[in-house]
Design brief:
Helices cover 35% and strands 18% of the residues. The chain is built from 10 helices and 13 strands. The strands form 3 sheets. Strands 3-2-1-6-7-12-13 form a 7-stranded mixed beta sheet, with helices on both faces. Strands 9-10-8-11 form a 4-stranded parallel beta sheet, sandwiched between helices. Helix 1 runs parallel beside helix 8 (292-310), helix 4 packs across helix 5 (187-195) and helix 6 (210-222) crosses helix 7 (260-272). The chain binds 6-O-phosphono-beta-D-fructofuranose. 6-O-phosphono-beta-D-fructofuranose (F6P) is lined by residues 10, 72, 114, 137-139, 181-183, 234. 6-O-phosphono-beta-D-fructofuranose binds next to loops.
């Protein structure tokens, strides 16, 4: 049996641990393993295909990033190709990809990615490719699995930042607004905000009003707590508004959202007269060593993906349904977007302990 592994979409701490576990468990079955570099690009002649051996995956479980590299511009069904006049056109190169995989003798692919990569995997399965998915995202926004690896590391990074902002905010009686990742889902903001004891948490799932945010800050001020910490997800928006787009995306990429922390800090300062500062945590959340939790989950996912290949579970992804690792159809996982449930106990608990979501 000859299998291949690829990593697509934004990177997440734990990718290397999945690659290592999938490779070692496949080798343990007597299979050979290829690594497709940079998402699907390696199967389109745009990057390399390399052998993965026990030697090549040695010492990588604790490393962030991905030894196979990645891209969020590599959709083979709409591959961005630059034209002679400099403009970009999306071209369907899926047939070429399948042909190249066949010529390389690849009998099955383990595709590690978020909702975008999994949707591509599903379309390739429908065209006859044998693929098993492994869900990945620091945003934790893939349904069908309790959590994805990378999320715990991102939350840990955000908590560290909040802890550090606390001491300086308190020293200066300032309001600090921290922007964390989460284009469509507010899990990072919610979990880090509650664990880091923020005063206000703003997420895409609960649109807020500036007056409520300012009231939370001023109420705290009146009680003698002169500083405040606000954690805002990059995709969060005011009631009746939309998330702000920041910068230009590259062709084939998702829209880039962000900049909310800076705008919010200015609005709060203008309205309350309190000194406000902002900070964007950005890609720091995607880097660094995976936490022990993420390493273990990623390793379990890698081992389970090889088992799913052995079981012929094409079009399925591995998933955590505590305490078990199971497989679920990718179509089922993608049918419903995973978002923070405003009635979830973490939100309710936050409200009970006085954290404002700016909506009331
Ligand atoms: O999808 C995960 C994510 O972390 C989003 O929260 C964020 O908007 C996006 O990746 C940014 O990706 P990049 O900057 O790599 O395009």
């Amino acid at each position: 049996m000859r299998i291949a592994i690829s990593t697509g979409g934004g990177d997440a701490p734990g990718l290397n641990a999945v690659i290592r576990a999938a490779t070692l468990s496949a080798i343990g079955r007597g299979w050979t393993v290829l690594g497709i570099k940079r998402g699907y690009a390696g199967l389109l002649g745009e990057d390399e295909v390399v052998p993965l051996t026990a030697e090549s995956v040695r010492g990588i479980a604790h490393l962030g990033g991905t030894i196979l590299r990645t891209t969020n511009r590599g959709n083979p069904f709409g591959f961005p190709v630059q034209q002679k006049d400099g403009s970009w056109k999306e071209v369907d190169r899926s047939g070429e990809l399948i042909e190249n995989a066949r010529n390389l003798g690849i009998q099955a692919l383990i595709s590690i990615g978020g909702d975008g990569s999994l949707a591509i995997a599903q379309r390739l399965v429908e065209k006859g490719m044998r693929i098993v998915g492994v869900p990945k995202t620091i945003d934790n926004d893939v349904s069908g699995t309790v959590t994805t690896f990378g999320f715990d590391t991102a939350v840990t990074t955000a908590i560290e930042a909040i802890d550090k902002l606390h001491t300086t905010a308190e020293s200066h009686d300032r309001v600090m607004v921290l922007e964390v990742m989460g284009r469509d889902a507010g899990f990072i903001a919610l979990h880090s905000g509650v664990s880091g004891t923020a005063d206000v948490i703003l997420i895409p799932e609960i649109p807020w009003k500036l007056e409520h945010v300012c009231e939370a800050v001023m109420e705290r001020d009146r009680s003698g707590r002169k500083f405040a910490i606000i954690v805002v997800a990059e995709g969060a928006a005011e009631q009746g508004g939309v998330a702000s787009i920041i910068g230009e995306s590259m062709p084939g990429q998702n829209r880039r959202v962000g900049g909310i922390a800076q705008r919010l800090a200015k609005s709060i300062q203008d309205r309350t007269g309190k000194e406000c500062r902002s900070m964007v945590l950005g890609h720091l959340q995607r880097g660094g060593m995976p936490t022990g939790y993420d390493r273990l989950l990623a390793t379990r996912f890698g081992g389970a993906a090889t088992q799913a290949v052995a079981d012929g579970k094409w079009g399925h992804m591995v998933a955590l349904q505590t305490p078990h690792i199971v497989t679920v159809p990718i179509t089922e996982a993608l049918a419903v977007a995973k978002r923070v449930d405003p009635d979830h106990d973490v939100v309710q608990t936050a409200r009970r302990i006085g954290i404002s979501f700016g909506d009331r």
